[in-house]
Structure formats: structure tokens, C-alpha cells
Amino acid sequence: MSNLNLTSTLKSNQSISVPQLGLGVWKSRPKECFEAVKSALSLGYRHIDTAAIYGNEADVGAAIQESGIPRSEIFLVTKLWNADQGYDSALRAIDVSLKKLGTDYVDMYLIHFPVSGKRNESWKALEKIKAEGKSKAIGVSNFMVSHLEELLKETGTIPAMNQVEYHPFLQDKELKEYCTEKGILLEAYSPLAHGQKLEDPRITQIAKRYKKSNAQILIRWSLQAGHVVIPKSKNPDRIRENADVFDFNLSEADMKEISSWNENFRTCWDPTTVD
């Protein structure tokens, strides 16, 4: 995947194209979130990822409206929080999110976490949400292979996307292969490992050769690996830097080298412990 640009998309199994690079807004406080989304859209980003639990859906919606960019040109994602899981509560939750976002549909609605005893009923609600046009596509987040297998046995719709923590230091290759086999897009959140590995000398050595920042090397690796990538930032300069990754290609040797760094280094919650 070398011929990439800021408008590059990946086709999901639900016949919807997902912009490969997006902006994540986790931990962005309302005013910060508003400014970050405005900045990203002005730079050419067309994929914004939020969630009910982030508390900033209203600011995401306000920034989209103020941008003047047609809603149809922006890929908007939000997520069903754990406390709202279950069939009826999920149907209520999407309406609350849509009202806050100021739109009558999202492009992707995700189950945020595989809550035991509720995730399958939640997925049935998402199928109804999709059928009603409130979301163009539906998917999951933090689902491991066991959760996906259970879901496919219980329901009739394969998720369009699985959003999981994924970076060179946390590579669940079994999960990636399973998603590829089922046509599920793998979306990498925390592609920079929350900055905890940014100063790794191996990244620095590669970054110097390409005259790029360490963060840009990690983002480019994820893009070339075929992931949807949503680095989060509230800093306009960093948002610009994160998108400045389309004027170079990592060599096959460097891709192979970076892909050998897995150490199961998880920086967020651990869904592997959920039955």
C-alpha cells in the first residue's frame, strides 16, 4: 500500500468506503475537541472518530457544521458505551448520540467494548439501527477473535470494522488474520502507543533516514500495513504532522523490521480478559 494520500479509503464488507487516516478525539475536552476537529477538517481530514463516553459528541457536531464541508463528505464514527448496552438501551443511545452530533445518521456505529451477557443483544440493536438508516455501517471495538466468533454464530451481520489498540509493539497477528479472512477492517487506535514508545532508538534511526518524525514513521507503518488509523491529538501542529505522511514510502525491509517489534505492550484496557 504505497500509493496513498489523505483521501485514500478502504472498502468495508458492508460496501462503505472508510478514509484510512482519521482524527481521534478521546480525552479531548469540549472546546479543545471543537478546535481540533475544525483544524483537522481544514487540513483535509475527512474521518472523525468520537464516542458517547468521550463527552464531546456535541463539539464534534458543532465543528463539522461550522466547517462548511457537506456532511456527506465526512466519515463520522461514534460508539455505544458499556452502560447503554442491551437491545432497547442501545436503540435509545444512538438517538441521544445523533442529537448531540446534530446529524440524522453516522457513517459507522461501533460497540465500544465486548460486555459479557450484553454484546450480542447490542449487536442485534445495531443491525436494526443500520436497517433504519441511522448508521450506514456497523462494527465493533476491542473485540478479540473469541468475541467475533461468538458474534458471528449469534447474528447474521459481519462487523464492517474492529477498532483495537494496534501498533508495532502490540500486534495481535491472529486477530488481524481473522479480520482479513472475514473482510473486517482493522482500525488501529493508539497507533503511537500513547507516546510511551516514541523515543525507541530503533524508530529514531529509521526516522532519521526518511527525515521524518518518529510519530510519522509509526503512522506510515500502520497505513502501509493496511490498517485504518486514528491518531488522536488536540494540537493543530501535531494534527498537521500526523497527516504529513504521504510523501514517502517505508521500504519493504523497514516494514519487515518494524513488524518484528511486537512485545504485547498494551497501553489501554485489556479485552483479552473478557470471557
From TrEMBL:
A GO molecular-function annotation: oxidoreductase activity, acting on the CH-OH group of donors, NAD or NADP as acceptor
Keywords recorded for this protein, A-Z: NADP, Oxidoreductase
The keyword NADP is assigned to this record: yes
Site (described: Lowers pKa of active site Tyr): K79
Pfam families in the cross-refs: Aldo_ket_red
SUPFAM superfamilies, sorted: NAD(P)-linked oxidoreductase (SSF51430)
Residue span(s) of domain NADP-dependent oxidoreductase: 21-262
Cross-referenced InterPro entries: AKR, Aldo/ket_reductase_CS, NAD(P)_OxRdtase_dom_sf, NADP_OxRdtase_dom
Chain residues that bind substrate: H112
Catalytic residues (positions): Y54 (proton donor)
Family: Belongs to the aldo/keto reductase family.
Protein name: Aldo/keto reductase
UniProt organism field: Leptospira noumeaensis
